[in-house]
Design goal:
Glutaredoxin, alpha+beta, globular, about 50% helix, 4-stranded mixed sheet, about 10% strand, 2 domains, Glutathione S-transferase Yfyf (Class Pi), Chain A, domain 2, 9 helices
Length: about 230
C-alpha cells in the first residue's frame, strides 16, 4: 500500500514535505485537500485529522501530522542521509528544526506574513492589527540576524554543515514565505547564499509554483516587510 500525503500546494507547511518527496523521488501519493473550498473542515477529513490542517501523512493505518515530524519519519523510513544517524549530528538537525518551528516562525509567519495575507488572521481592530505586525517585524529581524550570523555564519552551505538536511528543507520553506510580502534579505549575505543554494534544487520551482503564483496575485497590495535598513 502506497503512502499518501494530504496536502495543498500553497500551504507553507506542505511545501517542505512536497519538496523533500520530489527531490528524493519517494513513493508517496499526493492527495490535495482544497483549503480554498474548506475541504479541510469537512467531516471526511476532520475524522482522520481533527486538527483540520495539512499536511498529513498516511502510511497504511498509521497517520502522522506536522511537517517537521513527517520529514523525520520519511527520512528515517527510507534511511536517507538528510537525517543523519549520528547522535550529535541528528540532534543538531532537530535543534534547527525546533528553532524554526518555534522562535522563528512564531514571529515571522504568524506575526508578519499571515496577518497581512490571510483574512482569518486579521486582528479585531487596526491598532491591534498594526501593532502585531510591527512587533513581528522587530522580532523577526532579530531572528533573521541569528539565522545569518549563528546558523549560517560559518561559511557552511547549509544549516548544520556542508551537507543538506531536512532542516534546510524545512527552514527554507518557512523563510521564503516572506517573498509573498516582498521581504528583501539582501542585507543578510549568508541567508541570501543559503536560500540561493536551496533554490538550485531541481524540484524547487515546480514545488513552489503555487506559492509564486500567490505572490504574483497579491503583488499590488501594500505590505510591511523585512528590508535593508
Amino acid at each position: 500500500m502506497s503512502m499518501k500525503l494530504y496536502m495543498h500546494p500553497v500551504s507553507n507547511a506542505s511545501r517542505p514535505v512536497l519538496l523533500f518527496i520530489a527531490e528524493k523521488k519517494l513513493g508517496v501519493e499526493n492527495k490535495v485537500v482544497d483549503l480554498m473550498k474548506g475541504e479541510h473542515l469537512e467531516e471526511h477529513y476532520t475524522s482522520i485529522n481533527p486538527s483540520r490542517m495539512v499536511p498529513m501523512l498516511e502510511d497504511g493505518d498509521f497517520r502522522l501530522t506536522e511537517s517537521s515530524a513527517i520529514l523525520k519519519y520519511l527520512a528515517s523510513k527510507f534511511d536517507l542521509p538528510e537525517y543523519p544517524t549520528d547522535l550529535k549530528k541528528r540532534a543538531r538537525v532537530d535543534e534547527a528544526m525546533d528553532w524554526f518551528n518555534t522562535q522563528f516562525y512564531r514571529d515571522f509567519g504568524y506575526g508578519v506574513v499571515y496577518p497581512q495575507v490571510f483574512p482569518n488572521h486579521k486582528r479585531p481592530n487596526d491598532t491591534f492589527h498594526n501593532g502585531v505586525i510591527e512587533w513581528g517585524i522587530e522580532k523577526s529581524a532579530s531572528w533573521f540576524k541569528v539565522l545569518d550570523t549563528h546558523w549560517l555564519g560559518n561559511g557552511n552551505a547549509y544549516l548544520t554543515g556542508n551537507d543538506i538536511t531536512i532542516a534546510d528543507y524545512f527552514g527554507a520553506s518557512l523563510a521564503t514565505i516572506g517573498e509573498v510580502v516582498r521581504c528583501d534579505f539582501s542585507h543578510l549575505p549568508n541567508v541570501s547564499r543559503w536560500l540561493g543554494n536551496m533554490k538550485k534544487l531541481s524540484s524547487w520551482n515546480q514545488i513552489n509554483e503555487a506559492m509564486m503564483g500567490f505572490r504574483e496575485m497579491v503583488k499590488d497590495q501594500p505590505f510591511k516587510a523585512i528590508k535593508p535598513a
